[in-house]
Design goal:
Radius of gyration: 20 Å
Subcellular location: Membrane
GO molecular function, one term: transmembrane transporter activity
InterPro entries: Na/Glc_symporter_sf, Na/solute_symporter
Number of helices: 7
Helix content: over 70%
GO cellular component, one term: membrane
Membrane topology: Multi-pass membrane protein
Shape: globular
Strand content: under 5%
Amino acid sequence: VIPIMMGLLGFVGAGAGMEIDNVGVTNALVIAHFLPSGASIFFMFMVFAGLVAILDSQYSSVANMTGHDIYNQFKTGHVDLQIRWARGGMIALALVALMVSHIPNIQILHLFLFFAVLRASVWLPSMISFLKPEWINEKGMFWGILIGATVGEILFVSGKLGYTDTAFLGVLVAVFGSPALAIGVSKNPSWIRLK
């Protein structure tokens, strides 16, 4: 519902003939144009609240992944290390976010596209695990998504920022490489040995 409603604001601005140079702030400018100034402040507060909720969700996910999933791959028998791994994952997420925010010429559109590639890398393995659970196990799912998403995202980002022509290849690797690796590692666990 929210993406559709936010998209409608873009159509309202286009229908009103508004000329907006930076399309990343179209919604805020349309609200400022048609509603009183207090509505713009309220809208920005809602956007900020939504972003904080997303940040909280990402911190929880990273803490769970590093403190449970990754830690269990390398556990040494100390339970208190799970908390350290979770905190380390959250700090790493914050550092990655700072590095991404300082990429020259990055736009909000790029961030949405980058996130779409990450979602695409999770989609097919998740569907396969629901429809054919015997094809994929936990190890295959973890490494398939991790490797497919990482390689696909690197190719996509370098292509979108103009360093190479690999944006489409990155999407293909994320969409089709993740399930292929997930099934492959599930069928042949010896492909990845950590212990």
